[in-house]
Design brief:
The chain is an alpha/beta fold and 270 residues long. It has 12 helices and 5 strands. This is Zinc finger BED domain-containing protein 5.
């Protein structure tokens, strides 16, 4: 704009003026506020459904996340409504107060809420003192649903003892290598020498839905390298990675959890 109105030399001089220490962050905040205002104005006076979940980030800070879905003419809109920090406990009343304050501040009418989706935790799903019960007092026509992804995840946790033994062995071996930097480096060197496609295992995290399947597949792909490394280490489980019965069960678990991962991602609309 300056180059058009005044000239290129004036524009170059303007580029040399340093921005203040909070200019960028202020602009990002203003853009964010503007986008939020546009989105809230679209969703007002429309029937909507929300999905709520309490999550903890890498800094161990708790947040309440809320997604909203509503119809805009003939289009189904699904967007993040808010992500608010939880400073106190995670009881139902605390979570409701955070949600209710946001709705009141943005003049969103609770009576237009037709559905609420949460996980099955008591604070969320309790029929008398849970978050859904508190919301129902504000939105009597609301229908609560238990998140199908959570239900599928809970159902997949139960497995027969023989398969669970294979899974626990895999987790133990992965932790044995991944939690020790020196052992991880030696394992990487063996993988490179054997021409493996991958040179590292994946950490298993029980709270991440896709973790179990990804860890099992990576271990199956590196089973020969694991046998070589664990035999050199004298690990008690090294023979299992050449045992046909163990490998067959490991392959079966890989197939099952790969299908479950596909189901999980498809349910998330990915």
């Amino acid at each position: 704009m300056v180059s058009t109105m005044i000239g290129e030399s004036a524009a170059n001089q303007l580029k040399n003026i340093p921005l203040s220490n909070n200019t960028i962050s202020r602009r990002i905040h203003d853009i964010s506020e503007n986008i939020n205002e546009q989105f809230i104005s679209k969703s007002k006076n429309k029937n909507f459904a929300i999905q709520l979940d309490e999550a903890t980030d890498s800094n161990k800070d708790a947040h309440l996340i809320c997604y909203i879905r509503f119809m805009d003419k003939t289009n189904i809109i699904e967007e993040l409504l808010f992500c608010k920090p939880i400073f106190g406990d995670t009881k139902a009343q605390t979570l409701f107060d955070i949600t209710n304050d946001f709705m009141n501040c943005n003049n969103i009418n609770w009576e237009n809420c037709l559905g609420v989706c949460t996980d099955g935790a008591r604070a969320m799903a309790g029929h008398y003192g849970g978050l859904q019960a508190l919301i129902r007092k504000k939105a009597p026509e609301m229908i609560w649903t238990h998140c199908i992804i959570h239900r599928e995840s809970l159902a997949s946790q139960n497995m027969c003892p023989s398969l669970n033994t294979v899974l626990q062995t895999v987790i133990k071996v992965v932790n044995y290598i991944k939690t020790r930097p020196v052992k991880a480096r030696f394992f990487k060197k063996i993988c490179e020498e054997m021409g493996a496609e991958h040179t590292a295992l994946l950490f298993y995290c029980n709270s991440r839905w896709l973790s179990k399947g990804n860890v099992l597949i990576r271990v199956f792909e590196l089973r020969q390298e694991l046998y070589t490394y664990l035999s050199e280490e004298g690990h008690n489980d090294f023979n299992k990675f050449i045992d046909s019965d163990f490998v067959i069960k490991l392959a079966y678990l890989c197939d099952i959890f790969e299908k479950l991962n596909i189901l999980n991602t498809s349910l998330q609309g990915k």
